[in-house]
Design goal:
130 residues; mainly alpha; Rossmann fold; two-stranded parallel ribbon; 6 helices; globular
Length: 130
Amino acid sequence: MKDLVKKEGREKEFLIESAATSTEEIGNPVHRGTRQKLAQFNISVSGKTARQMTKKDYEEFDYIIAMDSFNTRNIARIVEDKDGKVSKLLNFAGEKGDIADPWYTGNFDETYDDILRGYKGLLKYLDKKK
């Protein structure tokens, strides 16, 4: 998402962060397969490490975007979605379902394509809300 808004010259319009909904990867760098896939598009994740989502994130951000149902459930354990901020990414692409986790599937290409489609849909959604 950061790369999309940067390419459009809109970085100042957004505060975008990523946070884990579980604790397994806290402090770890971005997965090697993800780094390799993003490098194909000159997207750097240098210095990025996993951090845990907090209740403060819910107050600070307008949207909390989950990749899949597992993360949606974990988010509900961290915060009460009283303002309807939590959505699954593919909903913004007009699709139901989950982003397949390449940790399990090994398919970083499919995951990248799904995420890109979702983020483009999210940008269109946000532009319509202006």
